[in-house]
Amino acid sequence: MIQERYLLWSTHPYFDEATREELRNIAENPTEIDDRFYRDLEFGTGGMRGIMGAGTNRMNRYVIRKATQGLSEYLKEHVLDAATRGVAIAYDSRRHSTGFAREAALVLAGNGIKAYVFESLRPTPELSFTVRHLGCVAGIVVTASHNSKEYNGYKVYGEDGGQSPPLQADAILAKIEARKSWLDIELMEEEEAIRRGFLVYIGQNIDEAYLRQVQMLALYPELIRGQGGELRIVYTPLHGAGNQMVQRVLRDYGFSQLFVVPEQEEPDPEFTTVGYPNPENPAALALAWKYGEARNADIVLATDPDGDRLGIVARKTLNGPFAQLSGNQAGVILAYYLLSQKKQLGILPEKAVLIKTIASTDLADVVGKAFGVRVESVLTGFKFIAEKEKEMEEAGTGSFQMGFEESYGYLAGGFVRDKDGVIASLLFAEAALYYKVKEGRTLWQVLEEISTRFGYYQDGQESFEFPGKEGREEMERIMEILRKTEITEIGGLAVDRKADYELRHGKNMQTGEDYPLTLPKSNVLRFSFVGGGFVMARPSGTEPKIKFYFSIKADTESQLAEAFNQVKHDWLERIRRILTEIKEKG
Q: Which parts of 21-173 are beta strand (E)?
């Protein structure tokens, strides 16, 4: 099977010469051939993401074609007017992103489906908005988000502007898998597609409509217009797609003291100044941090390459040193700001709802409860936050105020169905301005107030990587062992509940009582502690790694660090023992 695929891709004239040559160069490397062809690149609720290169288990134009053909067939079968409503397509600054977007558009055209393609790179959340704004039947974004430069990806959005949920993704995957041949996918020529109206380039008009909606989310627009210049902001798009939209939404509104890191302002597929362009990683913010110090900034903002995530560095005190906020800390601060200010303004709805993921801090639940706001927890991945928002909106069961996940994703408003670094930039800038000019405080000092009122929480994450076919098998074995092991304490903290989302089964470890879980099936294990906090294990859906999440609660800051370190050390030692046992058994 593997050799047959390799021979097809390396010899058939359907594949371009560069692809065939790349594969001929690995003819003497069976391990590399095996890794490139042992499977098709996985398509799931997050679409596809992988290392760029030739092969069925790599990101390339042929994988894009096959995925888009499957999407086209799904749309034509399930949506009566799919051809005329069309599909919106956006892309980021990565290598081949423009070409991959073009391939997708011409496959859609070949299937008689209109494609609306941005004429240049745009942030992912603007694509979500565009799907809804134009009434499209679906959307595509070519991006690998915050991954390193070797990666690219392909995300599919539904007509509601949210990433394809599991059932839809499974149906699209079935269409992709049903097509066994790689050789019979028809593309329409670009000139013909434009002439026949199947390819339409879009841009400025969408930008204006999107920005108007974003700016309407500000709680104190007059404060920004009048005193926005009192907040000094340094911003970096990390060579990505967020640059123009973030600059416009801040500068046009009144944040006149906005400085962009010049070395990182322009798109760069090599990410020359940053390496791993993830704003969660402090190293990615090092240059912006330096500029923040030089410019005497109050806050530093950084969006990832596709502009949906936001990293924040803020002063500890008004004239104090900088420190980076974690995704959980920032999410709680934003929730506290929006809920407290809306309550003060008398505009907090009766059925207000905050949505977060099961990987995000329990502190958000406590804050929400204090304001009489319902907090919904969903599976990890912002698509589930958007899905819950849509469900509440259609059923009239709640008024969405904001959503966040620990991996630097935030959203407010009802016009985007994904995390949005542009929206987040405006709201965090407004919050920082409000607290500075109205109360003489920084975002960090607001977080201290929250901790004093509701308890001290520390959150963190650790990942173990498992590349290749063998690594995937090790990941599966680790989760299997954890699933079967009775764990009653971790690092000296008693486990209250064990939730197995793969089996949709929960157990009260104090009473032995079993109970069903209501969230959809997902390969996740979550161990909640008595009194708050948790440890969670979750294999990544887009990368060869298992992510371990830690959230620890303590009554005082001094107790917190010791408890967190003990739990993390105990858990990681457990994982290392399991891995050693697996390797010894072969």
A: 48-51, 87-91, 115-118, 138-142, 151-157
Entry pTM: 0.94
Of the CA atoms within 13 Å of residue 263, those in its CB half-sphere come to 12
Superfamily designation of domain 39-209 = Alpha-D-Glucose-1,6-Bisphosphate, subunit A, domain 3 (3.40.120.10)
- Is residue 233 within 8 A of residue 258, CB to CB? The reply is yes
Active site residue 407: no
CATH of segment(s) 228-454:
3.40.120.10
Catalytic residue among 93, 128, 145, 522: 145
d(CA 178, CA 180): 6
- Within 13 Å, how many C-alpha atoms sit on residue 165's CB side? 19
Q: Let me know: does 358 contact 392? Beta carbons within 8 Å.
A: no
d(CA 460, CA 458): 7
pLDDT tens profile 525-535:
999 999 999 99
Helices (H), 111-153: 124-134
Task: Kindly report, residue by residue over 43-93, the tens digit of the pLDDT.
Answer: 887 799 999 999 999 999 999 999 999 999 999 999 999 999 999 999 999
CATH 3.30.310.50 assigned to domain 456-585? The reply is yes
